[in-house]
Amino acid sequence: MKLALAGLPTSGKSTLMRALAGRRIAVGKGSSDASQALLSVPDERVDKLSAMYLPQKTIHAQVTFVDPAPPVAKADDPTTKLPPELRQADGLVEVVRNFDGGLGAPDPIGDHQSFGEELILNDLITVERRLERIAEERRRGREIDQEEISLLEQCKEQLNAEKPLRLLAEVAGHAKLRGFGLLTAKPVVVVANNEEDDDQPPDLGPEVKPVVARAAIEAELAELSEEERAEFMADLGLTQSALDRVIAAGYQALDAISFFTVGEDEVRAWTTRRGSLAPQAAGVIHSDMEKGFIRAEVMRYQDLIELGSEAAVKKAGLFKLAGKDYVVQDGDIFHVRFNV
Predict the structure, then answer these.
(1) Where do you find CATH 3.10.20.30 in the chain?
(2) If you ran DSSP here, which 8-state letter would residue 274 be given?
(3) Are 203 and 96 in contact (CB under 8 A)?
(4) CATH number for the domain running over 275-338
(5) What number of other Cβ atoms are within 10 A of residue 220's Cβ?
(6) Half-sphere exposure (CA, 13 Å, Cβ side) for 299?
(7) Cβ within 8 Å of residue 235, ≥6 positions away
(8) pTM score, two decimals?
(9) pLDDT band with cut points at 50, 70 and 90 for residue 52
(10) SS3 96
(11) DSSP string for residues in 22-77
């Protein structure tokens, strides 16, 4: 799953990306790309399972952050003001300036509203252009998809009312509109980039609860060794990196859940969408598992921790067999039976 950094110029996106890149997982070729970072999602459940099974490898769920390059904007095309990578991402991380930095007093709520308006305008142009193309196809006698027209008209009405499409989730998330990458339909995490001595969130309106990140400090921390980082954080009175909150908030915004596989060789968290069925989750592990899915043996993380062992979970009757119609829950521990 991929999150793209976004926001107005001078918000500090690049500084935040530098901090995130310092936490990236090394995955071979391309892992040093400064514009992209694959990061582990903090989850104490993975750590507790690892302490229980003592595996050779422990792997957390992962999410990718991208800092798109500035686009080549065309004066006659407002849609070119935003990087095309934003459309390709699963969600957005909107960085809002809440520091002076020689740029003048910050206006976080004004910047947040301006950026939202830019996204709405971008989507409105995309929708109107598609409706114009459909009208041209109709004039040429081509067959028209009435459902697509209805969906687009609903989007147009919502955008003209200056409201994001994510408030029309069933419409904006429809399969027939998915290819447009509509920006206001995507989940958004708002990150307030604060002054170094300010840990309080700015007021961005009643519906927005930003994650506070002092990107300049986080970027410095990312360049230190673990020992130096711990000492620096202690000096600053920090108990947790703000990046952990940014990563966790991004993962949550994507409506992602984690399920686990456990054993002596590996304890691992896997990511799937909320509402996924057991075969789909099995396919996350390996495509053959989805194709040849028979059943999954499932226990809840909380039951395992409370009872202390798989044997105790089975004895309590809490170890269950899940068929193809089982809806995966966050925290499920899976063992897949399949045949290819």
Answers:
(1) 275-338
(2) T
(3) no
(4) 3.10.20.30
(5) 17
(6) 23
(7) none
(8) 0.86
(9) very high
(10) strand
(11) TTPPP-STTTT-TTEEEEEPP-HHHHHHHHHH--SEEE--EEEEE-PPPP--BTTB
